[in-house]
Amino acid sequence: MNEERSYIKGYFGENWGYIQGKRYITNRERNKHFCYKHHGWGLELDLFEQIRGLGTIEEIVVRCSDRNQVNDFVASVQTWKIYGVVDRLRSDFGRQIFLAENRMKRERVDKV
Length: 112
Description:
Layout: E1 6-9, E2 15-20, E3 23-29, H1 30-33, E4 40-44, H2 45-54, E5 59-66, E6 69-76, H3 77-83, E7 85-87, E8 96-100, E9 105-109
Parallel strand pairs: 3-5
Antiparallel strand pairs: 1-2, 2-3, 4-8, 5-6, 6-9, 7-8
C-alpha cells in the first residue's frame, strides 16, 4: 500500500522531508548530518514546531543511509519534546532541536 506523501519545504524551497500517514520522514546521511556534540540527529526548531502544530504527526523518522545500509531512527514527537536539546551550532544556522540516537528506535530498511 503506497500512502500519499506530503512534502515539507525549507526556507529556500528544498525538501526537508515528507509526511506519510502519521509519520514525518526526513532523509539524512550520517557523514554529513549526524551531530556528535549531541550524539544524535537534529531538526530545524521551526520545522519541529510546525510538525507539532499539525497535531496529526505521531512519530519523527530520520532515514539514514550509511555505507550501503539504510536505517530508520524513530521517536515519537513527545520524546523529541521531552528529551530534545535546542541548540544553535553555527551563526549561519537556525536554532535546531537535537535528539540523541539512543532515545530512538532503530529499524532496518530493506527498500526505500
